[in-house]
User: Fold these one by one.
Assistant:
Number 1:
Amino acid sequence: MSKVLFKGAFVMSCNDEIGDLEAADVLVEGARIAQVGADLAAADAEVIDAAGMLLMPGMADTHSHLWEAPFKGRVTEAWGWEYFTNMHPLVSWLSAEDLYTATYAGAVESLAAGVTSMFDYCTAVMSPEHADAAIAGLRDAGIRAVFGYDLRGADPGRRWQHGPSGERFADLERVKGSLADDDDMMRLAICLSEVTPENLDRAEREIAFARELGCRMSWHNNKGGEIVLLHERGLLGPDMLPAHGNYTTDEDLELLGAVGGHLTSQPEAETYAGRRSMTMIGRGHRRGVRIALGVDVPAIMNLGLLPQMRLLYLLQRYIDGMHERLEAQVPVARRPGVPTLTVRDIVRFATVNGQSALGVEDTVGQIAPGFQADLILMDTRTFGRAEGDPAGHVVLNSSAGDVDTVMVAGKLRKRDRRMVGVDTGKLLADREAVRDRAYAGAGETIGRMTRTHWEWSPQA
Ligand SMILES: [Zn+2]
């Protein structure tokens, strides 16, 4: 069994009993953490000198569409519906091989930034081959993954072999059958079409199917009252992960909190959109909803959660302050419940809550014996670690460039700031080729949005 010994790190374990440890060692045996403590020794272990670095659990991105990775920058200035009209038609021009490359590229970019678990919400499953290719891309990157198989309707270019949800059930059974039940590196989830009053019968069939298959679910929760609808039909459960939830009502959040539910927020994408309320974070947090994080749109934002964490922390403080000023609490002062979030909360959203949203909190997301060795080292040797809570250093004083080492299930995926086993030159060429083929097919050009009006309905 391979052994790796991290020596002398500042350990932020995210484990309640272990807490934070100064100059501690962590011994990894095989895929798991064997010991955490001082002066550990293992004669046959590869030793990583982690002095001056912060060792923490890898982060969990609980909602990203990795197929967009080759198109970074395409919709940077999109407004209103322009993101959809300029991005979604490109899906039709991705071959299964292209989807493999795009997904692999997105997973590598995420790993490089310290994300070790990924919910890939794949809206590009145009055929069984596409599903297999995306799963292969995730596997080859070595990221711990949940493959989210989307059930939404037809594509704008009509090149999909798959019809809407009903016709995809058989393929989902096939994919589920191809994955080992005890494979904790690759699991299947089902992305529901829509949870709206008009679509609720169909959603109910999808939910029943997902539960029969033993799959967790997610969906774009873009309207208020959707969680109430699920509750009224007796369908709401902790196996459902709503994404965004910017328009959720207090009742929605109350019900979600009551079932021990999670909400995954993508702070950069949601604020970028310009039309979304961000008050659901504080309202959900106060009602016991466990907040998790994601990036959502790698065509716009870099993959990796550190910028999401920082924006969320600052944004919530801004909202708290605005609320206090509206209530004439000026100057603002600390009082029970205000400010809403600590830096520790934010780190928990990205680690423990993220893994819990993916259903693996008992084995992933903490540095403690028995847990999966999904670990990252943040380099603090040059400018030092910020004083106070080290979670504050992670949230406000670090960047993806500081991620020195990344380990997933005991395997090193990044070391000395370089990706392990990745031909980065080939990857760059491959992702550019995917982009160029898609643009050629769709008649688009690099660096220019062409569709500035709504010409495609996802319900078509
Ligand atoms: Zn999304």
Number 2:
Amino acid sequence: MAEKKTLGKTRKLDSMNRVIIPQEARQIMGVESGDDIEMFMQGQGVYLEKEIPFCVFCDSEKDILELDGIHFCESCGLKIAKGYANRIK
Ligand SMILES: [Zn+2]
């Protein structure tokens, strides 16, 4: 994890324990509304990072597809589709 850098002023958690990520931080992270973010604990703090989707079958980060919240690569998707096609023949 990189060195800590302050984002200036503090922010209050709202009544539902949410906090707005400042625009500067969102730009650095490369995230926008609707993106998935991973959270990591370190010591007493929380570290946020843009989720980099990976294949649940082979861990690849290349050519990722998503179905019902499950990420898989195109190669594994083709293997599954071929296996299913052979099964229903
Ligand atoms: Zn895969």
